[in-house]
Design a protein that fits this description.
It contains 21 helices and 5 strands. α19 runs antiparallel to α21.
């Protein structure tokens, strides 16, 4: 069945290149059709900015494979499921840094305008937590630049890892780039430099924070892109836990496949091989860095003492760790509360190969030798969030819904006056209205709740129903010379016809879901927002 695919917004030309030479089995055609639809949408709304940026970046920038960013670039490295996401979220709390957000990473070919649309459109389709581990997720949460490299530059291992596992040999070269041609490595550098440039335009004076697990094998290339401004923070975790967690991640994301999934034993062997390859390349390439350019930290210590461990790492890297950043981390962790890992369902973890124990020992030898940090209590937030004022939020939501309905009707009236032969309903406005109602209500309440979410979704539906009759009158004015009964009957019938059109129902559902998602959010806010 179709799914909110990890490369759903990658443009059609990239998907055609990925599919070149192969056609997925018919069992995947419905899923592929869904991807094609979303890809077409992403292609259309990002095309103008993609063309303009491509011309300017390639035609007017002297070295389009390099980005000089004096405020600095911090790249978080460490194999998948090693704790890099937690480190990324903590560092993204810093108000003096900037990092890609998922609405940007999932459509790397876009820019300012198309990203604004994407940020809005993704709300109904992205859950509030990742399926593999329950960690916070959503359009505004920190995202991995590797998704932009895959969806824009066609230069990532993601297709081979999570979409076409039988074609892994075609994609694995992007892990270390050693087997890539000079042109392919240039494309990788050019795509990353362009994406980083776009991310930093809004705040060019802030440190850029990037995170992709296989960047540990890209240290040499990253230095070519960012020069002396780049620093690295490596996060390591117990190899046995990393391996099991990766197998579970592949299982949780199997709905993204367009290929037969690997058996657990083969998958396990591939994970161990890739894990050792990336970690070995990390240590080898780190030797070329000057002192103070890379810091090592363990996931276990970061959990036990997040502020203390980051403070030490930042100090060794020559990066400031402000009081404001520490307060933001305290607020984030306070909102996050005690992490409750979703219960593990029994799955086949595969049979370890004969060489796996040796590989694990090698991985442990590559892991930094650090004593286990003592658990440090997180300080209370300097400015704790007050409890949500749900009643105030609902009242403001009612006022917002009424104002939105009047604005909607007024817009239809102006269009009708200007273009008498045009009879628009603009049902799409219910989707935008749901977003507006949800966002304003949660801001007014100071926090989300289920009652607020229900109220926002209900108001979105009510305003959609309420405007349908006056819109029908403005556009058609049925039985205008007839009796009041005829006037109400025929215009009411027209309004009902408009409300029950398939497209209207879809927009109404999307609007209600968007309002609910915004107004019912009770978890932590995305770090740095």
């Amino acid at each position: 069945m179709p799914v909110a695919h990890l490369l759903a917004l990658a443009p059609l030309d990239v998907w055609l290149r990925m599919l070149r030479g192969t056609l997925p089995h018919p069992r995947y055609w419905l899923r592929l059709l869904g991807i094609g639809f979303t890809s077409l949408i992403g292609t259309i709304w990002s095309l103008p900015e993609r063309i303009i940026f491509g011309i300017c970046w390639s035609g007017f920038k002297k070295d389009n494979e390099r980005l000089d960013h004096p405020p600095g670039v911090l790249v978080i490295i460490g194999y998948y499921r090693s704790g890099t996401t937690h480190a990324h979220n903590l560092i993204a709390c810093d108000p003096d840094s900037i990092t890609p957000r998922w609405y940007q990473s999932l459509m790397g070919q876009g820019f300012s305008m198309s990203w604004a649309v994407t940020r809005f459109l993704l709300v109904p389709f992205l859950g509030s937590s990742r399926p593999q581990d329950g960690v916070g997720f959503g359009p505004l949460w920190p995202g991995e630049d590797d998704f932009a490299l895959a969806g824009w530059g066609h230069c990532s291992t993601l297709p081979g890892r999570l979409i076409f596992p039988s074609r892994w040999d075609q994609w694995r070269k992007w892990n270390t780039l050693e087997e890539c041609t000079d042109a392919e490595r240039a494309r990788w550098r050019r795509t990353l430099a362009g994406f980083a440039w776009k991310i930093t335009r809004r705040h060019p004076d802030r440190m850029l924070v990037l995170k992709s697990p296989n960047h540990g094998a890209h240290i040499t290339e990253l230095v070519k892109v960012f020069g002396d401004h780049v620093r690295f923070l490596h996060v390591a975790r117990d190899p046995n836990k990393v391996i099991e967690s990766n197998i579970r991640m592949h299982d949780a994301l199997s709905s993204h496949l367009l290929d037969k999934s690997l058996d657990a034993t083969t998958l396990r062997a591939r994970i161990v091989e890739e894990y050792l390859e990336i970690e070995t390349a990390t240590i080898n390439q780190a030797q070329s860095l000057d002192e103070g350019r890379i810091a090592f930290i363990t996931h276990e210590n970061l959990i036990a003492d997040p502020i203390g461990q980051l403070s030490k790492s930042f100090e060794s890297l020559g990066i400031g760790f402000s009081d404001t950043h520490q307060d933001s981390i305290s607020n984030y962790l306070s909102d996050l509360g005690t992490y409750q890992r979703p219960p593990h369902t029994p799955i086949d973890l595969g049979t370890p190969s004969n060489s796996e124990p040796e590989s694990i020992e090698q991985l442990r030898s590559l892991r930094p030798t650090q004593s286990l940090a003592a658990t440090v209590a997180i300080p209370n937030p300097a400015h704790p969030s007050p409890p949500p004022r749900t009643g105030s939020g609902i009242l403001i939501a009612i006022g917002t819904a009424i104002a939105w309905g009047l604005l909607w009707i007024g817009l239809i009236w102006i269009i009708k006056l200007s273009f008498p032969d045009y009879r628009p309903r603009l049902d799409q406005l219910v989707w935008i209205g749901g977003s507006v109602i949800g966002l304003i209500s949660i801001r007014a309440a100071g926090g989300g709740s289920k009652p607020l979410g229900i109220a926002a979704a209900t108001l979105t539906l009510l305003i959609f129903i309420s405007v349908s009759f006056p819109i029908t009158v403005i556009n058609w004015h049925f039985a205008q010379n007839g009796s009041t009964q005829d006037f109400l009957y025929h215009n009411g019938k027209g309004a009902l016809h408009g409300l029950t059109a398939p497209s209207s129902i879809v927009y109404a559902i999307l609007g209600m879901l968007t309002a609910w998602r915004h107004a019912s959010q009770t978890g932590p806010r995305a770090p740095g927002t």
